[in-house]
Amino acid sequence: MSSIENLNPKKLLGLINHFINSGTVDEVLMRRIASSLFLSLYNYWSAKAYIKYNKRYDVKGRSSPRGDNLPHKWFYKDVLKQGYDEIIDIYLYRVWADHYALHPTEVVLNIDGSRVFRVEIDVNKLKDLIKSAYRIIEYVERY
Amino acid sequence: MLSQNFGSGLETVSEEDVGNLQVEVILSLTTIYEIISKMRKEEIIQILKSYVKEEHIINKIEENVSLVELTAFLLWLDTILESLNIYIADVFPFPDVETGEILFIGVELKECNNRDAWSALSRFIKGEMRKEGFKDLAGEIGLICHQ
């Protein structure tokens, strides 16, 4: 089994900062960064939660041989409870990066009607998201 | 809004520097919760309608969180945000775009321009909620500051 700290995304963020500082971030890279920020945070939290919850749970009671497929909902609950609500912004950019072709564009959430969030990203916005990601990592490190 | 509904005579619970914002907590969440919990459901829904853009969404919200707790929270949050010139633009169930599952109740804020200050503010608000015993509610609500 891999060590939990192997999933700490700090090294990834260091690499991303290196790309940003070298001025080589194009749209493809920008999208991959936006997507990986969210998922790497979830992966790291997931590994920590797996140990914390004493491996007792499977996702919604479905069969999962090791119980290591933790619901995204739990991740939100945990970070929102602590006030790291900036995860929502990271998520909206992740949705844009993985699901939308245009930039800028509008990310639509459908819930008996729709909510629209305009997405336009540049290096400064990316730096903001990275700052948020560092704050969330520091919380998960203490988890 | 709270003073309109409950009159004046409000006392300041605390004042704190959060990020670079001067945050004033006028009433405790518990106090507001106690007032709301004595109201009839129709009255609570009437208050909620001032925050929720589409009325039919309230049923969906109720499937995920207690309307009494949510309404108390929104009124309490409003008293804090008022002095910061930040306002609540909308309240809605926030879905996972891939599964459609409701992840939390989103509270969309407007004029929360300073991201670092807002980030500190959201931790302050959730910290106050935890201190007052609304830990679970804190995990059910997401403050959205998408600029």
Characterization of the model:
The complex is a heterodimer of chains A (143) and B (147). Chain A has 143 residues and is mainly alpha-helical. Chain A has one domain. Chain A contains five helices and two strands. A two-stranded antiparallel sheet of chain A has the order 1-2. In chain A, helix 1 packs antiparallel against helix 5. Chain A is globular. The two termini of chain A are 20 Å apart. The relative contact order of chain A is 0.17. Chain B has one domain. In chain B, helix 2 packs across helix 5 and helix 3 packs across helix 5.
| Structural class determined from secondary elements of chain A | mainly alpha
In what order do the strands lie side by side in the largest sheet of chain A?
1-2
Count of DSSP-assigned helices of chain A = 5
Helix content of chain B: 40-55%
Helix content of chain A: 55-70%
Structural features:
heterodimer; A: 143 residues; mainly alpha; two-stranded antiparallel sheet; 56% helix; globular; B: 147 residues; alpha+beta; 3-stranded mixed beta sheet; two-stranded antiparallel ribbon
Task: Draw up the topology in text.
The complex is a heterodimer of chains A (143) and B (147).
Chain A: H1 10-21, H2 27-52, H3 72-81, H4 87-99, E1 105-110, E2 114-119, H5 123-141
Antiparallel strand pairs in A: 1-2
Chain B: H1 2-6, E1 14-18, E2 21-25, H2 29-37, H3 41-48, H4 57-62, H5 67-82, E3 87-95, E4 102-110, H6 115-131, H7 135-140, E5 141-144
Parallel strand pairs in B: 4-5
Antiparallel strand pairs in B: 1-2, 3-4
Give a nutshell description of this structure:
Chain A has helices at 10-21, 27-52, 72-81, 87-99, 123-141, and strands spanning 105-110, 114-119. By secondary structure, chain A is mainly alpha-helical. Chain B has one domain.
